[in-house]
Design brief:
Length: 488
């Protein structure tokens, strides 16, 4: 016999004369309680997120929309327009998560495979899927209840579309799967965002117009700047306070009192992509103030090299920077040729740069390669090329600070405006934080050599030809080094 859901009183969600006793469910069996809750959920009237006012609405209740709903900034770009990335770089609590979750629900009408990418498994579950503004909640509000399988990180929607969860902790899980849409939450704060983005992009190939929602509090990392600048990006940036009606008054007051007018508040509350990074030595203003269009006559040119120990997709770059010393005694940054190379490739690039500029020396850090650096360079350079070994014995800040001081004194200059990647690294590097600044290191090694300041580093200057025969690694096949580097 089926146990009745309600054994006393009557109840209807739309009735104004209910006789239902609210204490009654406490006396039911767990099975009956579960059936009642399920009935309550399915009996609720679905709430439309996008109202008929369209992209001009402020999201406040009006007409038949007696509840708060999408503001103009929470509408995705029109689906009949050409775009690839919807970037919501806004303040904390501005409603980004709700916008991302509603985007996923919307995209189930256009594609059957959707990727959900969070920083960690906990963020995926607690924010993107099960959170207050997550996918399960917004779909339930819309009467579109999906089936969630946490062990598989898989959501199956009523129309058969599937959303699969991934994390920045395990980016290689994105290898293989195909998707027609995706939602990335807080990618500006992932340490390996470039690699995760690459893995995701390789599989974003289903349908005629794959699309991505990116929800993040912005940070001035190169990846985000590049995405924002892409022609296929549609960017929205709103402050925390636009969502004031949905946030605790005490929270709003505390945020205004503590962060209003501060640099941190500009980023975290107003969603600004700051160009001046707190704690960074170099700023855009300083680089522009010291920039020159052309270098004067140069007395010396050296090529700074900061070799990477490996050359796989997660390796550091090999920094290769050409730097000259002017007749006026100032340092001029001439060119940046850094990249992710195998040993054979970076040796070739160094040789090409050396001859292109008519350099008189190569300054190479040997901390991680020892004699390997000289051996690899010997395969590409003439016997008369001069190589100066640099052993970095102190921290990056101590090595970089004297070069930074040259910029402050107007004695160091970037030449032209073709050094964008190096500039991004200079203005975003905070001593003691983030990954190794390879381009900056190469520039610093070269500048120290030109200025004759050997305090921060130990420099040995060999005479004559490269020591091919004396090298303990002489005779090793560079192709073998390439293979070893790509497998480490």
């Amino acid at each position: 016999m089926t146990e009745p859901l309600i054994t006393a009183g009557t109840y209807s969600p739309t009735s104004t004369t209910n006789t239902f006793d609210p204490e009654l469910p406490k006396r039911w069996t767990p099975v009956a309680q579960a059936r009642f809750l399920d009935q309550m959920r399915t009996s609720e009237r679905p709430q439309a997120w996008y109202c008929t006012r369209g992209r001009t609405c402020d999201g406040k209740p009006h007409g038949k929309y007696t509840y708060k709903h999408a503001r103009a900034d929470q509408w995705p770009p029109p689906m009949d327009e050409e775009w690839e990335h919807w970037v919501m770089a806004s303040g904390r609590g501005a409603g980004k998560t709700r916008s991302g979750a509603e985007f996923v629900r919307t995209m189930t009408r256009y594609t059957g495979r959707i990727a959900l990418i969070a920083s960690t498994s906990a963020d995926l579950r607690d924010v993107m899927i099960e959170g207050e503004s997550g996918i399960l909640r917004v779909c339930e509000n819309a009467g579109f209840r999906p089936h969630w399988e946490p062990s598989k990180r898989k959501i199956t929607f009523p129309n058969g579309a599937i959303a699969t969860g991934y994390t920045a902790e395990e980016p290689d899980r994105l290898r293989g799967p195909q998707h027609g849409a995706g939602w990335l939450d807080e990618p500006a704060h992932w340490k390996n965002v470039e690699y995760v983005w690459d893995m995701y992009s390789y599989g974003l190939r289903l349908g005629t117009a794959p699309r991505t929602a990116i929800t993040t509090t912005p940070t001035p990392i190169p990846w985000l700047k590049e995405i924002v600048a892409e022609p296929g990006s549609r960017v929205i940036s709103v402050p925390t306070f636009i969502n004031e009606d949905n946030l605790a008054p005490r929270f709003i007051q505390r945020m205004r009192e503590r962060y209003e007018g501060t640099r941190q508040g500009r980023q975290e509350l107003y969603g600004e992509i700051l160009t001046d990074v707190e704690g960074a030595l170099w700023t855009d203003e300083l680089l522009d103030a010291t920039r020159v269009d052309r270098a004067p006559e140069l007395t010396r040119i050296v090529i700074g090299v900061d070799p990477a120990g490996t050359s796989n997709k997660r390796s550091d770059l090999t920094g290769i920077v050409a730097v000259g010393l002017g007749v006026d005694g100032d340092v001029y940054i001439l060119g940046d040729y850094s990249g992710r190379y195998t040993p054979h490739e970076w040796a070739g690039k160094v040789s090409e740069t050396y001859h292109r500029w008519g350099a008189d020396a190569i300054v190479a850090e040997k901390n991680y390669g020892g004699e390997m650096v000289r051996t690899v360079l010997a395969t590409e350079l003439s016997d008369f090329a001069r190589v100066i070994d640099v052993t970095s014995r102190q921290g990056k800040f101590i090595r970089a600070e004297p070069v930074f001081s040259l910029f402050e004194q107007q004695r160091a200059h970037l030449v032209g405006r073709m050094l964008g990647d190096l500039e991004d690294e200079l203005t975003s590097w905070v001593p003691g934080k983030g990954k190794s600044p390879d381009r900056l290191d190469a520039m610093v090694h070269a500048a120290h050599e030109l200025r004759g300041e050997s305090g921060p580093v130990e420099i040995s200057t060999p005479t004559g030809a490269l020591p091919r025969a004396r090298s303990p690694l002489a005779g090793i096949d560079v192709a073998l080094l390439d293979m070893l580097a790509t497998t480490i």
